[in-house]
Amino acid sequence: MNVLIDNRQTKVDASGLEALVVRAIKATLEEEEVVDEVEVSVSFVDNEEIRKLNKYYRGIDSSTDVLSFPLMEFEEIEEGEEDEKDAEEIYPIGDIVISLEKAKEQAEEYGHSFEREVAYLTVHSMLHLLGYDHETEEERKLMREKEEKVMERLGLRR
After folding, report:
1. d(CA 44, CA 143)
2. Cβ distance 44 to 9 under 8 Å?
3. φ, ψ dihedrals at 119, nearest 5°
4. Which of 9, 56, 135, 148 can pair with 46 through a Cys bridge, CB separation 3.0 to 4.6 Å?
5. Which N-terminal residues, if any, form the signal peptide?
6. Are 105 and 117 in contact (CB under 8 A)?
7. What pLDDT is attached to residue 75?
8. Rounded Cα distance, 90 and 20, in Å
């Protein structure tokens, strides 16, 4: 597993978050039984930058907590024949963009730690990169169950 982290904001102290994000990504991959070597890029931004990204990519002119940018359908990795796979190959599965400013606001609003919020947003986004969504009630319920399992694995239950 290769995790690239880029802190592109200065409004919120990001000390210690890199290790937490790596743990959250690893726990999600383990829970989903992903055995392939994957690469994930994570960017920490402020509300203004995520608002611009949200407007550009989704047509929504407001800040949000996290955006997920899958680079491929995860099934593409799983479906390759074993003899065609390079054992050393690392599959870039996507990018995660987290507004630390929004995460801090939400942690205060929900009454839990900033670290728990960042871990949750990372897990949520990882599930999107792995092909999950929450467009329907059924999808939302499944995704929520998976999020809770990973958060429990991390010792960060509600």
Report:
1. 23
2. yes
3. -60, -45
4. 9
5. none
6. no
7. 59
8. 22
* Chain segment 67-109, per-residue pLDDT in tens: 999 997 755 545 544 545 555 788 999 999 999 999 999 999 9
On the CB side of 62, how many CA atoms lie within 13 Å of its CA?
A: 3
Whether the pTM exceeds 0.85: the reply is yes
Domain 2-153 sits in which CATH superfamily? Answer: Metalloproteases ("zincins"), catalytic domain (3.40.390.30)
CA 68 from chain centre, in angstroms, equals: 7
CA distance 35 to 42: 20
- Six token digits for residue 154: 């991390």
Burial letters 86-104, b for 16+ CB under 10 A, else e: eeeeebebbbbbbbbbbbb
Cβ atoms of 63 and 48 within 8 Å: the answer is yes
| DSSP per-residue codes, 70-97 | ESS-HHHHHHS-GGGS-TT--EEEEEEE
**Does 112 show up as a binding residue in the annotation?**
no
Q: Which of 133, 128, 134, 106 is nearest to 118 (CA)?
A: 106
Token digits of residue 10: 């200065």
AA letter at 145:
E
The number of residues making up the chain comes to 158
